[in-house]
Specification:
Helix content is about 25%, strand content about 25%. By secondary structure, it is α/β, with parallel strands linked by helices.
């Protein structure tokens, strides 16, 4: 029997949602970098800010480019990393699953990690962004367009394409293209 969640992932769907913050709950992890705990092989990082204003935190999920990883992705977003909780998942392979046969394994892992983060942290549902560089930017735009009822913003740095299976919601989009190379 087919798993309906597999169908959701193949369609680019992420069902994880922030839960209301529990008053007086301490942060589950100290400031700094922590393994994301995505399981097999490549993992990812969760960057907890040094200090944050009281109340729910913004969350940025930053996706690396082809052959990249969480550490390289963090360098690209470091200037704003202290303003939010930053989730930095690693793809299972050299790049994101849609480039290697369609949506599925990476979305499933991202959703599982996102469920844990959203369950453990006070995340502001009005400030939940997906961002990325290069292949990660293309994946971020695609995820935002398919899951605009979750992601309120998408930041794409040098995307090459967009592959939404369907459109959902109206996230705010920012895209920056690389300047042309002169020889």
């Amino acid at each position: 029997m087919d798993d309906p969640e597999d169908d959701d992932h193949a369609a680019g769907r992420i069902d994880a949602r922030p839960s209301p913050p529990r008053p007086g709950t301490a942060w589950p992890l100290p400031p700094g970098l922590h393994p994301l705990g995505m399981g097999e092989g490549r993992d990812g990082l969760l960057r907890v800010p040094a200090a944050a204003a009281p109340g729910p935190l913004p969350l940025i999920m930053m996706l690396h480019g082809a052959t990249g990883d969480a550490t390289r992705a963090l360098r690209r977003i470091a200037p704003i990393a202290d303003a939010a909780l930053v989730m930095l998942p690693d793809s299972l392979r050299r790049s994101w699953d849609v480039l290697e046969g369609g949506y599925g394994p990476d979305i499933a892992r991202i959703e599982a990690a996102l469920r844990r983060v959203l369950a453990e942290w006070p995340v502001d549902p009005k400030r939940l962004a997906v961002a990325g560089f290069s292949d990660g930017a293309s994946y971020a735009l695609s995820l935002a367009l398919m899951n605009g009822d979750l992601f309120t913003h998408a930041l794409a740095f040098s995307p090459g394409f967009v592959v939404p299976m369907r459109l959902e919601g109206k996230p705010r989009l920012f895209s920056a293209m690389a300047p042309p190379i002169r020889c």
